[in-house]
């Protein structure tokens, strides 16, 4: 079904808004499909999105979200997977560097930071989906939200310096088990989500560091190369994804 870019963007924003509001995925998709049919018929008669919803996109999304029940069961399906994936990234990085030791503050602070960052992300997605903002402002907001967990982790490091709490240390065997378990988590999430992202990103983030550690280069040189290669690889990957999505949009448009 060919609809205009305006209508397709509205439907995609609506999907993001409802998903970020904790609404049932199947119910959301049913509403999107029904609304797409209405938009298709309306456009054939020269009408626009505003003619169909009768109000601003923000007002319509808010009203629709209020009429739908909160899918607590569906939310419980995603949160553990997201937290497990985030923990796997941290654990694998620490295991590769041989730095696997965690204080009681770490064990409490990590889950709190993950949940808080997830909350901020959902709030931001709802805001971006329901408001017309410039791309610069959008990227700026995502940048701020992306920096927040990093700042909280830095604060956690300083807390560990001021407060002595019990520490759990892992030896070589523990590091190897942690790496193996993290790989299984990445593969499991990739199979569950039907995407290669959770496999490609760990390879992009950790493989350069592993390969550089095998060389005889000075530590300062390794840090410089690692700090250059990783952003470059991530940038190339994001560019490829952007190109693929852009080509998909061109195919969808009439």
TrEMBL record:
The keyword Transmembrane helix applies. It comes from the Bacteria. Pfam families: HAAS_TM (PF08006). Keywords: Membrane, Transmembrane, Transmembrane helix. The chain crosses the membrane at residues 75-96, 108-127, 139-159, 171-192, 199-217, 223-242. Residues 89-203 form the HAAS transmembrane region domain. SUPFAM superfamilies: BH3980-like. This is ABC-type multidrug transport system permease subunit. It comes from Bacillus chungangensis.
